[in-house]
Amino acid sequence: MDQKSVWVGTNWxxxxxxxxxxxxxxxxxxxxxxxxVRAFVTPPLTSLKDVASILQxxxxxxxxxxxxxxxxGAWTGxxxxxxxxxxxxxxxxxxxxxxxxxxxxxxxTVNRKVQAALRHGLRPLICIGDLLDEYEAGVSQExxxxxxxxxxxxxxxxxxxxxxxxxxxVWAIGSSGxxxxxxxxxxxxxxxxxxxxxxxxxxxxxxxxxxxxxSVSRANIRDxxxxxxxxxxxxxxxxxxxxxxxxxxxxxxxxxxxxxxx
Length: 262
Ligand SMILES: O=C(COP(=O)(O)O)[C@@H](O)CO
Prior knowledge:
Elements: E1 6-11, H1 18-29, E2 37-42, H2 48-54, E3 61-64, H3 81-86, E4 91-94, H4 97-102, H5 107-119, E5 123-128, H6 132-136, H7 140-151, H8 157-160, E6 164-167, H9 182-200, E7 210-213, H10 221-225, E8 232-235, H11 242-252, H12 255-260
Parallel strand pairs: 1-2, 1-8, 2-3, 3-4, 4-5, 5-6, 6-7, 7-8
Helix pairs in contact: 1-2, 5-7, 7-9
Ligand LAUYXW4J binds next to strand 8.
């Protein structure tokens, strides 16, 4: 039976040059995570190796924000799973909506990347999300089920134990987004739980963590983490300052035991 944890990550996106990233990693290095919390940070590639090296003895995991599915070759500008792993990363964000919208990622290219990450021992942190017009048309669930099923297509049971799925409504992300209402997130995650259980089995031996992301802040983090089918959050702006990130993690530490008993 997979143990229940609360996951809290922060994605730095295209922020922090190497100097700032190293300073932030130094600040995170001495942080004592509350028991049962699994934390991760995804710095830009320019500081991935430095941040991973600073955090190598810390429980805070380090991941890349994207990668390509081939291992090497004539793919100018791309980086591969083995390169990311060699930098010391243990996970990688895949299919973030900013990649899907601005860089042409599709459900099927996300699947290729998921498979490549797993081949090289990287935990795929798979982002899925509905567009505003899909949300308004009431078809969010269909979009999310499709994205999830394709991302996980062809994975073995061992592979499924490694993946994390993150629901990030596109309309909730960034300064122009609005945080999704917790009851809506609860409904979506309950349905997502059935989708992943259809794939991984209903016996509970594999529990795929389902995270929420999109305008997570001090004001709402506990509302999301307290939901029974939400296993944690991915934070953007509110987590870029390492002190804020640590304080946000500390603010949900007590929910670990509440959820474990649920
Ligand atoms: O995109 C994300 C949400 O960003 P916010 O700034 O929290 O809206 C997610 O990937 C975390 O970076």
